[in-house]
Amino acid sequence: MNTSVFEEVWKTICSRIENPPEKSYVVDILTHRKGIDKSLEKVGEEATEFILAAKNNDYDNQVYEAADLFFHLMLALKAIDVEFSDVIAELERRHK
Ligand SMILES: N=c1c2ncn([C@@H]3O[C@H](COP(=O)(O)OP(=O)(O)OP(=O)(O)O)[C@@H](O)[C@H]3O)c2ncn1[C@@H]1O[C@H](COP(=O)(O)O)[C@@H](O)[C@H]1O
User: Does any ligand 1 atom lie closer than 6 A to the CB of residue 12?
Assistant: First the structure.
C-alpha cells in the first residue's frame, strides 16, 4: 500500500486516541457522550453537505465538502473499530 495523506491522517486519528491531547477534534468526536452515534451523525451531516455542494456550482466548496466527508468517514471507521487498511485492501482487490 502506498503512503498517502489518508494513511497519515489515519495514524493521527489513532494517536489522538492513544495519547489524547487537551484539545483535539478527533478526541471530541470519538469520546462524545453519544458514543459512536456522534461520528455516524457527522457522516450523515457531511454527506448531506457534500450533496448540496454537488448540486451547486461552486467547485471549491465541492472539494472542501468532499474532504470533510472523507475525514468524518475515517472517524466513523475508527469509532466502529474497522481498520482503514482493510478498506484500502478492499479497494485494491476491486481494482485488479
Ligand atoms: N481533517 C481534519 C478536519 N476536518 C475538519 N475538522 C474539524 O471539523 C470541524 C468541522 O469542520 P468544518 O471545516 O466542516 O467546519 P464548519 O465549516 O464549521 O462545518 P460545516 O458546516 O462545513 O460542516 C472543525 O472543528 C474542524 O476543525 C478536522 N479536524 C481534524 N482533521 C484532521 O485530524 C487531525 C487531528 O486533529 P485534532 O484531533 O484536532 O488534533 C488533523 O491534523 C487533521 O489531519
Answer: yes
Q: What's this model's pTM, rounded to 2 decimal places?
A: 0.93
Q: Which residue has the cell 474497522?
A: 82
CATH number for 24? 1.10.287.1080
- Atom 23, ligand 1: residue with shortest CA distance: 46
What does the pLDDT look like over 6-50, one tens digit per residue?
A: 999 999 999 999 999 999 999 999 999 998 999 999 999 999 999
Domain that holds residue 22: 5-82
ipTM for the predicted complex comes to 0.89
Give the separation between CA 31 and CA 2, rounded to whole angstroms: 30
Across residues 81-92, what is the average pLDDT? 96
- Measured CA to CA, the distance from residue 37 to residue 24 in angstroms comes to 18
Query: Per the domain annotation, does 94 fall within a domain?
Result: no
Cβ–ligand 1 distance for 9 under 6 Å, the answer yes
Count of Cβ atoms closer than 10 Å to residue 78 Cβ: 21
Residue 68 CA, ligand 1 centroid: distance in Å: 7
